[in-house]
Design a protein that fits this description.
single chain; 2 domains; five-stranded parallel β-sheet
């Protein structure tokens, strides 16, 4: 048995608190997977003072980190501090950023190991063999290993969390201060019920995440319907004041019959909670939406991203404006509200593309039951096609903190966003930047909420004024 500490990514800046509206589910899934064989603690530095926690006197054999690019300077500080406090502990990195950016992670952090793709099985094997592990030096392999990817029953096991250990209510209390009273963020429990997105959109890194282990053609794996109903029942037993369960997967409703089956089982059991799910527009039809409404779904979240056929093709979205319109009409008839995700100044967009997308967003907001989350640009994530192939990337720098014996001061270069090639679109983006930083309207909105969905209407109106 090893003594293991798992540390989630740490933000101590108020401006990004809005991105941390729930406990670090991925870290707690690892704890659940390992807990029968190892002594596993979780440090959530967004709730606990990490310095005080690490000075508590408990010793650890292995410390796992889940760094993110936005907080990398803080995550590096914690890694260095852990080296001082636990000099003999093995440091392991995991998660999407560590997987898709492992070369830079090794160079910046000095970690001993990086676990690529899903971490449950790989980390368990590392812990079991740590004392006898002998790796030949200087070898990098591209050998695929399906054995590291969780199957359906294993996803159900990893998702069978003890929510009483996760301090969910502390997040609920904090959310009220950073979301402006957003209903979907109030007493909301996030769940992840699938493990893969095969789409390969050019702006996203999640497809690459699993493909580090498995080649193209890998199938989406989902929790079996009855097991999912059992997990929902457990959530409500442990957190009876839950109002919404939000399935945050890219493909929560990927398998049509499985969605129908678990909704029917939920109805039979009389489960009383509302649901929101993220999925693709081609996962829904009238029968599916009907059973979802009867089960308690009150909103769907879909990635439309752009309202332009040429741009959708360039982005790799695999959908057309006609498909989008048909989906919108179907959900209107079924009275199913939507949260629509859009990006305005996409790298390959022209002026007409961004205008059509902004106009579409405003049309969707005419139904006040809908919400639209509009991002003015495409964020730069390692592992995405744009990150590897687009030359117009804007970087920002963050500085590793100093203190508590840690020598910081290093400037860490972080990819921030992809800039559009079209000069007119780039000028539009610069004007949006200026307004969001200096306009009294936007400044006031930022004091009330950190959710991009609450800026979207004003942002699209401004774009149409300047375009």
């Amino acid at each position: 048995m090893k003594k293991v500490l798992l540390i989630s990514s740490w933000t101590n800046e108020k401006k990004v608190l809005g991105y941390y509206l729930s406990p670090p589910i991925g870290v707690y899934r690892l704890q659940r997977w390992l807990q029968d064989r190892h002594d596993v603690d979780v440090l959530d530095p967004n709730l606990d003072n990490p310095i005080e926690f690490l000075k508590s006197g408990k010793r650890y054999d292995v410390i796992g980190f889940s760094p993110t690019k936005d907080n990398l300077h803080n995550d590096i500080f914690l890694m260095r501090y852990c080296r001082l406090v636990f000099p003999s502990a093995v440091q392991v990195l995991g998660g999407v950023e560590a997987t898709c950016n492992h070369q830079q992670m090794l160079a910046l952090t000095g970690a001993d190991y990086i676990v690529l793709n899903e971490g449950e099985k790989a980390l368990a094997a590392l812990l079991d063999n740590l004392t006898s592990l002998s790796l030949p030096p200087s070898i990098v392999t591209n050998q695929f290993s399906y054995s590291t990817v969780l199957n359906a029953d294993e996803i159900a096991l990893a998702t069978d969390l003890d929510y009483n250990r996760m301090r969910v209510r502390e997040y609920w209390r904090r959310n009220s201060a950073v979301t402006g009273g957003d209903l979907l963020s109030t007493n909301c429990v996030n769940m992840y019920i699938t493990n893969y997105c095969p789409q390969g959109c050019k702006f996203c890194s999640t497809t690459r995440f699993i493909r580090q282990a498995c080649p193209a053609g890998t199938k989406v794996v989902a929790i079996p319907p009855l097991a999912l109903v059992d997990l929902i029942t457990k959530v409500l037993a442990q957190l009876p004041d839950t109002k919404t369960i939000y399935f945050h997967d890219d493909n929560a409703c990927h398998y049509r019959q499985m969605t129908i089956d678990w909704c029917r089982a939920s109805i039979r059991q009389g489960i009383d909670v509302s649901y929101v799910a993220s999925s693709r527009i081609n996962h829904f039809d009238a029968e599916v939406l009907d059973i979802m409404k009867r089960a308690g779904f009150r909103k769907l979240s879909v990635g439309i991203e752009a309202y332009s056929d040429p741009l959708l093709r360039k982005m790799g979205k695999g959908q057309t404006v006609r498909m989008i319109d048909d989906f919108i009409e179907l959900t209107r008839k079924m009275d199913m509200p939507l949260n629509i995700n859009l990006m305005l100044c996409v790298p390959e967009a022209d002026r007409d593309d961004v205008k059509r997308t902004a106009e579409f967003a405003l049309r969707m907001l005419e139904n006040r039951n809908n919400t639209v989350t509009v991002h003015p640009y495409v964020k730069a994530y390692a592992g995405s096609w744009y990150h590897d192939n687009w030359d117009l990337i804007e970087y920002r720098y963050s500085t590793v903190p100093s203190g508590h014996g840690v020598k910081g001061g290093d400037a860490v270069r972080i990819p921030h966003r992809f800039l559009p090639r079209d000069a007119k679109v780039r000028e539009i983006l610069m004007q949006l930047d200026h307004a969001m930083e200096n306009s009294p309207d936007f400044i006031k909105m930022k004091t009330d909420s950190f959710l991009m969905s609450q800026f979207s209407e004003k942002l699209c109106q401004l774009l149409l004024e300047v375009a």
